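Final report, section 2: Outcomes. Of the targets proposed, Protein kinase domain-containing protein is the one most frequently requested by collaborating groups, and we therefore present its record in full.
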Amino acid sequence: MAVFKLDNVEDLYEIGDVLGSGHFGQVREVRERLTGTLWAGKFLKLQRSVGSRFGLERKSVEQEVEILQSLQHQNVMALKDVFESRAEVVLIVELIRGGELFDFIAEKENLMESEAIDFLKQILQGVCYMHSKQIGHFDLKPENIMLLVKHAPSPDIKIIDFGMAHRFIQGVEYRSMGGTPQYIAPEIINFEPLSTAADMWSIGVITYILLSGLSPFQGETDEETLKNIVAMSYVFEPHYFSQTSSMAKDFIQKLLTKDQRERMTAEDCLIHPWIKPLTKTQMARRNRSSINMKYFKRFNAKRKWKMSYNMVSACNRLYKLKLVCKTGAVDKQDLRECESDQEDTETKTVSLLRRRLSSSS
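The predicted structure is given below as C-alpha coordinates.
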Protein backbone atom coordinates (compact mmCIF):
# COMPACT_ATOMS: atom_id res chain seq x y z
CA MET A 1 0.00 0.00 0.00
CA ALA A 2 1.26 3.49 -0.87
CA VAL A 3 2.65 5.45 2.07
CA PHE A 4 2.14 9.24 2.16
CA LYS A 5 3.56 11.71 4.68
CA LEU A 6 1.35 14.48 6.00
CA ASP A 7 4.33 16.69 6.95
CA ASN A 8 4.95 19.96 5.17
CA VAL A 9 7.52 19.19 2.48
CA GLU A 10 9.28 22.50 3.12
CA ASP A 11 10.04 21.47 6.69
CA LEU A 12 12.30 18.70 5.39
CA TYR A 13 13.38 20.00 1.97
CA GLU A 14 14.52 23.35 0.64
CA ILE A 15 12.70 24.04 -2.62
CA GLY A 16 14.95 25.10 -5.50
CA ASP A 17 14.74 25.93 -9.20
CA VAL A 18 12.13 24.62 -11.62
CA LEU A 19 13.55 21.82 -13.78
CA GLY A 20 10.46 21.21 -15.87
CA SER A 21 6.69 21.70 -15.94
CA GLY A 22 3.55 20.14 -17.36
CA HIS A 23 -0.20 20.45 -17.20
CA PHE A 24 -0.51 18.72 -13.83
CA GLY A 25 2.43 20.32 -12.03
CA GLN A 26 6.15 20.89 -12.13
CA VAL A 27 9.49 19.34 -11.22
CA ARG A 28 11.84 21.32 -8.99
CA GLU A 29 15.27 20.71 -7.58
CA VAL A 30 15.05 20.19 -3.81
CA ARG A 31 17.74 19.92 -1.14
CA GLU A 32 17.27 17.66 1.87
CA ARG A 33 17.77 19.89 4.91
CA LEU A 34 19.20 17.12 7.12
CA THR A 35 21.89 15.82 4.73
CA GLY A 36 22.21 18.46 1.99
CA THR A 37 21.49 15.81 -0.66
CA LEU A 38 19.90 17.04 -3.89
CA TRP A 39 16.71 15.38 -5.14
CA ALA A 40 13.99 16.19 -7.66
CA GLY A 41 10.54 17.13 -6.35
CA LYS A 42 7.53 16.32 -8.55
CA PHE A 43 4.72 18.65 -7.46
CA LEU A 44 1.50 17.11 -8.79
CA LYS A 45 -1.94 18.73 -8.67
CA LEU A 46 -4.78 16.49 -7.53
CA GLN A 47 -8.39 16.55 -8.69
CA ARG A 48 -10.45 18.77 -6.40
CA SER A 49 -13.58 16.68 -6.84
CA VAL A 50 -14.65 13.34 -8.28
CA GLY A 51 -14.99 13.57 -12.05
CA SER A 52 -12.99 16.79 -12.34
CA ARG A 53 -10.99 17.10 -15.57
CA PHE A 54 -8.28 19.17 -13.90
CA GLY A 55 -5.61 17.53 -11.83
CA LEU A 56 -4.58 13.89 -11.45
CA GLU A 57 -6.88 11.28 -9.97
CA ARG A 58 -5.57 10.34 -6.52
CA LYS A 59 -6.00 6.64 -7.28
CA SER A 60 -3.59 6.82 -10.24
CA VAL A 61 -1.02 8.68 -8.13
CA GLU A 62 -1.39 6.07 -5.36
CA GLN A 63 -0.76 3.28 -7.86
CA GLU A 64 2.43 4.88 -9.19
CA VAL A 65 3.67 5.61 -5.67
CA GLU A 66 2.93 2.07 -4.48
CA ILE A 67 4.87 0.64 -7.40
CA LEU A 68 7.85 2.97 -7.00
CA GLN A 69 8.01 2.33 -3.26
CA SER A 70 8.31 -1.39 -3.96
CA LEU A 71 11.12 -0.98 -6.53
CA GLN A 72 14.66 -0.51 -5.27
CA HIS A 73 17.15 -1.19 -8.05
CA GLN A 74 20.12 0.74 -9.39
CA ASN A 75 18.56 0.93 -12.86
CA VAL A 76 15.15 2.17 -11.71
CA MET A 77 14.45 5.74 -10.64
CA ALA A 78 14.41 5.85 -6.82
CA LEU A 79 11.56 7.32 -4.80
CA LYS A 80 12.66 8.88 -1.49
CA ASP A 81 9.54 10.46 0.04
CA VAL A 82 5.92 11.27 -0.75
CA PHE A 83 4.05 14.20 0.79
CA GLU A 84 0.35 14.86 0.54
CA SER A 85 -1.83 17.89 1.07
CA ARG A 86 -5.43 18.48 0.09
CA ALA A 87 -4.62 19.79 -3.39
CA GLU A 88 -1.18 18.38 -4.12
CA VAL A 89 1.11 15.38 -3.88
CA VAL A 90 4.89 15.84 -3.87
CA LEU A 91 7.14 12.97 -4.95
CA ILE A 92 10.79 13.26 -3.91
CA VAL A 93 12.69 11.22 -6.48
CA GLU A 94 16.25 10.65 -7.62
CA LEU A 95 17.75 13.66 -9.39
CA ILE A 96 18.63 12.35 -12.85
CA ARG A 97 20.83 14.82 -14.74
CA GLY A 98 22.33 12.81 -17.59
CA GLY A 99 19.56 13.22 -20.17
CA GLU A 100 18.18 10.57 -22.50
CA LEU A 101 20.32 7.59 -23.49
CA PHE A 102 19.54 8.08 -27.19
CA ASP A 103 20.74 11.71 -27.06
CA PHE A 104 23.96 10.57 -25.39
CA ILE A 105 24.59 7.95 -28.08
CA ALA A 106 23.73 10.37 -30.91
CA GLU A 107 26.60 12.64 -29.83
CA LYS A 108 29.15 9.89 -30.52
CA GLU A 109 30.96 9.49 -33.84
CA ASN A 110 30.83 5.70 -33.70
CA LEU A 111 29.63 2.98 -31.36
CA MET A 112 30.37 -0.74 -31.38
CA GLU A 113 27.65 -3.28 -30.69
CA SER A 114 29.54 -4.31 -27.57
CA GLU A 115 29.20 -0.76 -26.20
CA ALA A 116 25.49 -0.65 -27.00
CA ILE A 117 25.08 -4.00 -25.24
CA ASP A 118 26.47 -2.51 -22.03
CA PHE A 119 23.53 -0.09 -22.04
CA LEU A 120 20.99 -2.73 -23.05
CA LYS A 121 22.23 -5.01 -20.30
CA GLN A 122 21.45 -2.35 -17.71
CA ILE A 123 17.97 -1.83 -19.18
CA LEU A 124 17.37 -5.58 -19.09
CA GLN A 125 18.58 -5.85 -15.51
CA GLY A 126 16.15 -3.15 -14.43
CA VAL A 127 13.28 -4.73 -16.37
CA CYS A 128 14.17 -8.19 -15.09
CA TYR A 129 13.95 -6.88 -11.52
CA MET A 130 10.57 -5.21 -12.20
CA HIS A 131 9.19 -8.38 -13.75
CA SER A 132 10.41 -10.46 -10.80
CA LYS A 133 8.12 -8.23 -8.71
CA GLN A 134 5.25 -8.91 -11.17
CA ILE A 135 5.35 -5.31 -12.36
CA GLY A 136 5.13 -4.29 -16.01
CA HIS A 137 6.21 -0.81 -17.12
CA PHE A 138 4.05 -0.60 -20.29
CA ASP A 139 5.69 2.57 -21.61
CA LEU A 140 9.28 1.62 -22.38
CA LYS A 141 10.61 3.98 -25.04
CA PRO A 142 13.73 6.15 -25.56
CA GLU A 143 12.21 9.10 -23.65
CA ASN A 144 11.93 6.94 -20.52
CA ILE A 145 15.48 5.60 -20.54
CA MET A 146 17.82 8.13 -18.94
CA LEU A 147 21.37 8.46 -17.69
CA LEU A 148 21.95 9.29 -14.02
CA VAL A 149 25.06 11.32 -14.89
CA LYS A 150 26.17 12.05 -18.44
CA HIS A 151 29.93 12.51 -18.01
CA ALA A 152 30.94 9.27 -16.31
CA PRO A 153 33.24 6.44 -17.49
CA SER A 154 30.31 3.98 -17.37
CA PRO A 155 27.03 5.93 -17.19
CA ASP A 156 24.25 4.36 -15.12
CA ILE A 157 20.92 3.75 -16.85
CA LYS A 158 17.73 4.82 -15.09
CA ILE A 159 14.25 3.71 -16.17
CA ILE A 160 11.71 6.44 -15.40
CA ASP A 161 7.99 7.29 -15.68
CA PHE A 162 5.87 4.61 -14.04
CA GLY A 163 2.57 6.34 -14.74
CA MET A 164 1.35 3.41 -16.86
CA ALA A 165 2.98 0.65 -14.80
CA HIS A 166 0.87 -2.22 -13.46
CA ARG A 167 1.34 -4.84 -10.77
CA PHE A 168 -0.06 -8.21 -11.83
CA ILE A 169 -2.20 -10.22 -9.43
CA GLN A 170 -2.33 -13.97 -9.95
CA GLY A 171 -5.57 -15.04 -11.58
CA VAL A 172 -6.63 -11.50 -12.49
CA GLU A 173 -6.56 -10.50 -16.17
CA TYR A 174 -5.24 -7.10 -17.17
CA ARG A 175 -5.88 -5.20 -20.39
CA SER A 176 -4.64 -1.75 -21.36
CA MET A 177 -5.61 0.74 -24.06
CA GLY A 178 -2.59 3.04 -23.74
CA GLY A 179 0.89 3.31 -25.13
CA THR A 180 3.06 4.99 -27.72
CA PRO A 181 2.07 3.51 -31.11
CA GLN A 182 5.49 2.54 -32.52
CA TYR A 183 6.53 0.75 -29.28
CA ILE A 184 3.38 -1.12 -28.22
CA ALA A 185 2.95 -4.89 -28.55
CA PRO A 186 0.28 -6.44 -30.83
CA GLU A 187 -1.64 -7.84 -27.84
CA ILE A 188 -2.28 -4.28 -26.64
CA ILE A 189 -3.75 -3.29 -30.02
CA ASN A 190 -5.89 -6.46 -30.04
CA PHE A 191 -7.05 -5.74 -26.46
CA GLU A 192 -5.92 -9.17 -25.26
CA PRO A 193 -4.96 -10.10 -21.68
CA LEU A 194 -1.49 -8.71 -21.05
CA SER A 195 1.66 -9.86 -19.31
CA THR A 196 5.13 -8.48 -18.70
CA ALA A 197 5.96 -9.78 -22.20
CA ALA A 198 4.61 -6.50 -23.60
CA ASP A 199 7.70 -4.76 -22.17
CA MET A 200 9.94 -7.24 -23.99
CA TRP A 201 8.35 -6.34 -27.33
CA SER A 202 9.17 -2.68 -26.62
CA ILE A 203 12.79 -3.61 -25.89
CA GLY A 204 12.90 -5.40 -29.24
CA VAL A 205 11.73 -2.22 -31.01
CA ILE A 206 14.23 -0.09 -29.07
CA THR A 207 17.09 -2.46 -29.97
CA TYR A 208 16.08 -2.47 -33.65
CA ILE A 209 16.15 1.35 -33.69
CA LEU A 210 19.39 1.54 -31.74
CA LEU A 211 21.25 -0.68 -34.20
CA SER A 212 19.82 0.65 -37.46
CA GLY A 213 18.36 4.12 -36.96
CA LEU A 214 15.12 2.80 -38.41
CA SER A 215 11.83 2.18 -36.60
CA PRO A 216 10.58 -1.30 -37.58
CA PHE A 217 6.85 -0.61 -37.79
CA GLN A 218 6.66 3.16 -38.25
CA GLY A 219 4.09 4.19 -40.83
CA GLU A 220 2.97 7.54 -42.20
CA THR A 221 0.15 7.62 -39.63
CA ASP A 222 -0.50 5.98 -36.27
CA GLU A 223 -3.16 3.79 -37.89
CA GLU A 224 -0.62 2.53 -40.43
CA THR A 225 1.92 1.89 -37.67
CA LEU A 226 -0.59 -0.22 -35.71
CA LYS A 227 -1.52 -2.17 -38.85
CA ASN A 228 2.17 -2.92 -39.45
CA ILE A 229 2.54 -4.18 -35.87
CA VAL A 230 -0.49 -6.47 -36.08
CA ALA A 231 0.68 -7.77 -39.46
CA MET A 232 4.25 -8.26 -38.14
CA SER A 233 5.40 -6.22 -41.12
CA TYR A 234 9.11 -5.64 -40.59
CA VAL A 235 12.37 -6.68 -42.27
CA PHE A 236 16.10 -6.26 -41.74
CA GLU A 237 16.85 -4.03 -44.71
CA PRO A 238 20.50 -4.55 -45.79
CA HIS A 239 20.92 -0.80 -46.33
CA TYR A 240 20.32 -0.22 -42.60
CA PHE A 241 21.69 -3.47 -41.15
CA SER A 242 24.89 -3.91 -43.15
CA GLN A 243 26.99 -3.43 -40.01
CA THR A 244 24.80 -5.56 -37.73
CA SER A 245 25.78 -9.03 -36.49
CA SER A 246 23.56 -12.06 -37.08
CA MET A 247 23.37 -12.59 -33.32
CA ALA A 248 21.87 -9.11 -32.88
CA LYS A 249 19.21 -9.86 -35.50
CA ASP A 250 18.41 -13.15 -33.76
CA PHE A 251 18.04 -11.26 -30.47
CA ILE A 252 15.54 -8.84 -32.05
CA GLN A 253 13.59 -11.60 -33.80
CA LYS A 254 13.09 -13.46 -30.52
CA LEU A 255 11.56 -10.32 -29.02
CA LEU A 256 9.44 -9.18 -31.98
CA THR A 257 7.40 -12.38 -31.80
CA LYS A 258 3.63 -12.03 -32.02
CA ASP A 259 2.85 -14.82 -29.56
CA GLN A 260 3.79 -13.31 -26.21
CA ARG A 261 4.31 -16.79 -24.74
CA GLU A 262 7.12 -17.38 -27.26
CA ARG A 263 8.82 -14.05 -26.61
CA MET A 264 12.10 -13.99 -24.71
CA THR A 265 11.85 -12.91 -21.10
CA ALA A 266 14.29 -10.41 -19.58
CA GLU A 267 16.10 -13.35 -17.98
CA ASP A 268 16.33 -15.08 -21.39
CA CYS A 269 17.74 -11.90 -22.91
CA LEU A 270 20.51 -11.65 -20.32
CA ILE A 271 21.82 -15.09 -21.29
CA HIS A 272 21.32 -14.71 -25.06
CA PRO A 273 24.69 -15.15 -26.85
CA TRP A 274 24.54 -11.58 -28.17
CA ILE A 275 24.35 -10.21 -24.62
CA LYS A 276 26.47 -12.94 -23.03
CA PRO A 277 28.71 -14.63 -25.64
CA LEU A 278 29.42 -18.29 -24.98
CA THR A 279 32.46 -18.65 -27.24
CA LYS A 280 35.37 -16.56 -28.48
CA THR A 281 33.89 -16.68 -31.99
CA GLN A 282 30.64 -15.13 -30.77
CA MET A 283 32.58 -12.48 -28.90
CA ALA A 284 34.65 -11.65 -31.99
CA ARG A 285 31.59 -11.34 -34.24
CA ARG A 286 29.92 -9.03 -31.80
CA ASN A 287 33.00 -6.86 -31.36
CA ARG A 288 33.42 -6.42 -35.12
CA SER A 289 29.86 -5.13 -35.59
CA SER A 290 28.75 -1.56 -35.01
CA ILE A 291 25.73 0.71 -34.89
CA ASN A 292 24.65 2.49 -38.07
CA MET A 293 25.41 5.94 -36.61
CA LYS A 294 24.48 7.91 -39.72
CA TYR A 295 20.89 6.71 -39.66
CA PHE A 296 20.68 6.60 -35.87
CA LYS A 297 21.60 10.30 -35.65
CA ARG A 298 18.98 11.04 -38.30
CA PHE A 299 16.31 9.07 -36.41
CA ASN A 300 17.12 10.77 -33.12
CA ALA A 301 17.07 14.26 -34.65
CA LYS A 302 13.66 13.52 -36.18
CA ARG A 303 12.41 12.14 -32.87
CA LYS A 304 13.50 15.27 -30.97
CA TRP A 305 12.01 17.52 -33.63
CA LYS A 306 8.68 15.70 -33.36
CA MET A 307 8.71 16.06 -29.56
CA SER A 308 9.36 19.79 -29.87
CA TYR A 309 6.71 20.19 -32.56
CA ASN A 310 4.11 18.37 -30.45
CA MET A 311 4.95 20.53 -27.44
CA VAL A 312 4.67 23.80 -29.40
CA SER A 313 1.45 22.60 -31.02
CA ALA A 314 -0.05 21.77 -27.63
CA CYS A 315 0.99 25.15 -26.22
CA ASN A 316 -0.54 26.96 -29.20
CA ARG A 317 -3.81 25.07 -28.74
CA LEU A 318 -3.81 25.91 -25.04
CA TYR A 319 -3.16 29.60 -25.81
CA LYS A 320 -6.01 29.69 -28.32
CA LEU A 321 -8.26 27.93 -25.84
CA LYS A 322 -7.49 30.54 -23.19
CA LEU A 323 -8.47 33.28 -25.64
CA VAL A 324 -11.75 31.51 -26.31
CA CYS A 325 -12.27 31.02 -22.56
CA LYS A 326 -12.16 34.82 -22.13
CA THR A 327 -15.15 35.12 -24.45
CA GLY A 328 -16.98 32.34 -22.63
CA ALA A 329 -17.37 30.30 -25.83
CA VAL A 330 -15.64 27.08 -24.90
CA ASP A 331 -17.26 23.73 -24.17
CA LYS A 332 -16.14 20.86 -21.95
CA GLN A 333 -14.99 18.74 -24.88
CA ASP A 334 -12.45 21.40 -25.90
CA LEU A 335 -11.12 21.39 -22.35
CA ARG A 336 -10.80 17.62 -22.38
CA GLU A 337 -8.90 17.61 -25.66
CA CYS A 338 -6.60 20.37 -24.49
CA GLU A 339 -5.93 18.59 -21.20
CA SER A 340 -5.10 15.39 -23.03
CA ASP A 341 -2.61 17.21 -25.22
CA GLN A 342 -0.87 18.66 -22.19
CA GLU A 343 -0.60 15.34 -20.40
CA ASP A 344 1.50 13.60 -23.01
CA THR A 345 1.74 14.25 -26.72
CA GLU A 346 3.53 10.97 -27.42
CA THR A 347 1.79 8.38 -25.23
CA LYS A 348 -1.80 8.15 -26.37
CA THR A 349 -4.80 5.88 -25.95
CA VAL A 350 -5.03 3.35 -28.76
CA SER A 351 -8.70 2.43 -28.34
CA LEU A 352 -9.86 4.87 -31.03
CA LEU A 353 -7.07 3.77 -33.35
CA ARG A 354 -8.01 0.15 -32.75
CA ARG A 355 -11.63 0.88 -33.68
CA ARG A 356 -10.44 2.52 -36.88
CA LEU A 357 -8.36 -0.54 -37.69
CA SER A 358 -11.34 -2.85 -37.06
CA SER A 359 -13.62 -0.80 -39.30
CA SER A 360 -11.09 -0.71 -42.13
CA SER A 361 -10.14 -4.40 -42.12
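The chain has two domains: 9-93, 101-296.
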